[in-house]
Amino acid sequence: MLTFIGLGLYDERSITVEGREALRSADRVFAEFYTSRLVGADAEALEAAHGIEVEVRGREGVERDPEAILAAAETGDAAFLTAGDTMISTTHTDLRLRAESRGIETRVIHGVTAQSAASSLTGLQNYRFGKAVTLPFPYAHGGDGVPASVVETIEANRGRGLHTLVYLDIKVGTGPSGLDPDHEEYMTADRAAALLADGWDDALAVVVARAGSPDPVVVADRLAALADRTFGDPLHTLVIPGDLHHIEAEALVGLADAPESLVEE
Amino acid sequence: MLTFIGLGLYDERSITVEGREALRSADRVFAEFYTSRLVGADAEALEAAHGIEVEVRGREGVERDPEAILAAAETGDAAFLTAGDTMISTTHTDLRLRAESRGIETRVIHGVTAQSAASSLTGLQNYRFGKAVTLPFPYAHGGDGVPASVVETIEANRGRGLHTLVYLDIKVGTGPSGLDPDHEEYMTADRAAALLADGWDDALAVVVARAGSPDPVVVADRLAALADRTFGDPLHTLVIPGDLHHIEAEALVGLADAPESLVEE
What we know:
The structure is a homodimer of 265-residue chains. Chain A is of the alpha/beta class and 265 residues long. Chain A has two domains: 2-109, Tetrapyrrole methylase, N-terminal domain (Cobalt-precorrin-4 Transmethylase, domain 1, 3-Layer(aba) Sandwich); 114-263, Tetrapyrrole methylase, C-terminal domain (Methyltransferase, Cobalt-precorrin-4 Transmethylase, Domain 2, 2-Layer Sandwich), CATH 3.30.950.10. Helix content of chain A is 36%, strand content 23%. Chain A is built from eleven helices and twelve strands. Chain A has helices at 17-25, 43-50, 59-64, 67-75, 90-101, 114-122, 138-141, 148-159, 189-200, 223-226, 246-256, and strands at 2-6, 28-31, 54-56, 78-82, 106-109, 133-135, 164-168, 170-175, 178-186, 204-209, 217-222, 236-240. A five-stranded parallel sheet of chain A has the order 3-2-4-1-5, sandwiched between helices. A five-stranded mixed sheet of chain A has the order 6-7-12-10-11, with helices on both faces. A two-stranded antiparallel sheet of chain A has the order 8-9. The longest helix of chain A is centred in the middle third of the chain and has 12 residues, at 90-101. The model of chain A has no long low-confidence stretch (mean pLDDT 93). At the A-B interface, helix 1, helix 5, helix 6 and helix 11 of A face helix 1, helix 5, helix 6 and helix 11 of B.
């Protein structure tokens, strides 16, 4: 049996009760933290909190060489941990399909995602978000500024009055010069706002920093203004609102200190 | 202090460890189950599992008369529970804003949502979903079949190659003839597929039944074929895929029994 478990957003207490039970009863526990990570807990903290041993695998150890995981799942109960929800990356889906094709039973125990947290912390309604995008580091897409695909998605969403969740790039294990086990870099919301302000200087945006932690920060302002501030530790995301319903505008003022002039209909 | 806690998708074990701790230390615990509910646990099961007392409030008791909740939060630690994530409904945002405007500190402890579960169970990638829609009972929107706004959203998403998550209507406490405390009705995926098949008979769709439960069912087929099957207990959702990446197509075949002819590129 291979159980995919989402750890949620922040620390060892972000997992569901069901997930924790599955984790504790597993024979072997694998994890990957290159697609995302828990900011409030490392593997050692998970081990101590749950009384388990965690085998952390890098990209190579999941994508090219998943044999250890599959073999453990074939002969016992193996758990595979990821930050946020599980199966968010195609990597995980691929691993699940490999397991199924070998006749290994799989199951999924969900975790909280940055997407739902961004919606509930900002008061922007879930069903009024369009397609989400990831804003990469300029070195990662080989160009300056914001990739055309990101611009197009934000514009297409705005054209339909929809909000856009902008995930900010995470580089763990790879850096500007390729594979680098020590590299760990998280795009900050101020840097993202500066990149995006190039096209939409005056546009309203909402920073969500440390969603799921005890001290999330939610700030709404013009992109150019957000670019001049700092928002503390990672992870950060950014939302570019589309049209605002009355209650959404009130929420941005009341919960995110939006200047009232920016949210008037 | 008013703590909004998302209970997650299924039963008393779907809450996060952090949420459970907050729940157990609250002086008073309120809940609403009219926007969504836990299928695997009622208020009594939550009370027994967590050693708490839960005061369930209907729509009136949250939207028109939130005074009991606010007063409890003013003088002690009050928790407000919802299924899925919290703040998913404008109702919750409104309650949070009322509390903040009275100087009551608020915080949010997130829960797993149907949206992320639908993505991870189907293998359809999170960032390739467009705007979500809710398919209402025909009596609830006062027309036959599918409202134009739902058709437009699905078409707009498909035009951009994006998947659409279709939430299925829930009627608790209101029925065809208005307010009715005993009314409880969940649209099933086969009924939804029949409604949608009217416009897109041959379109591929994916049923997700009981996401977050120990026995979720995920089935991909033509809408007209899904309309002829049944999928057991609620809650159900439906996904209308847009363009499929290779790994998404593989996932629908491997995890949802999609006929291969339907997912060919």
